[in-house]
Amino acid sequence: MDAMVTITDKAKGRIEQIMREENYDSSYFVRVAVESGGCSGLSYKLDFDNEEKKGDQFCEDKGIRICLDIKSYLYLAGTELDYSDGLNGKGFEFHNPNASRTCACGESFSV
Questions:
Q1: Is residue 101 in a domain?
Q2: Residues 39, 42, 48, 50, Cα dihedral to 10°
Q3: Which residues pair with 110 in a beta bridge?
Q4: Start and end of every Core domain (predicted)?
């Protein structure tokens, strides 16, 4: 399946590092989701999981399996996941073409 969410090389490296540190085997994937909340109305959630849920949509980019529930897919299709370790903050960043407004911290958005 084509990648619904793509990842940068930096995000791939950080994901692989976390998976090694946490001893996650190849059954684990990255679960990306959208939840209500945050200063702009919707917030991003990223987690590791190895249990599929009804309605999950899977894609793969750069060898990393990515999972979205059907609701999140509607908000995140075409999003790029990046990782920043610079002075302005450390963590995963979402570059979402569907977001019409993003809060200053980049952790929430609205459409």
A1: no
A2: 150
A3: 101
A4: 5-106
Q: Strands of 79-84's sheet, edge to edge?
A: 5-7, 79-84, 91-95
Fill in the DSSP letter of residue 99. Answer: -
Q: Write out the residue range of the structural domain in which residue 79 sits.
A: 6-95
**CA pair distance 31, 73, nearest whole angstrom:** 11
Given a cut of 90, whether residue 2 has pLDDT beyond it is no
Residue 111 located in a structural domain:
no
Number of compact structural domains in the chain: 1
What CATH number did the domain enclosing 80 receive?
A: 2.60.300.12
User: Encoding tokens for residue 11?
Assistant: 């995000």
Contact criterion met (CB below 8 Å) for 10 and 2: no
Q: What is the pLDDT of residues 33-45, one digit of tens each?
A: 988 876 657 888 9
Judged by phi (left if over 0) then psi (alpha if -120 to 50, else beta), residue 55 lies in: left
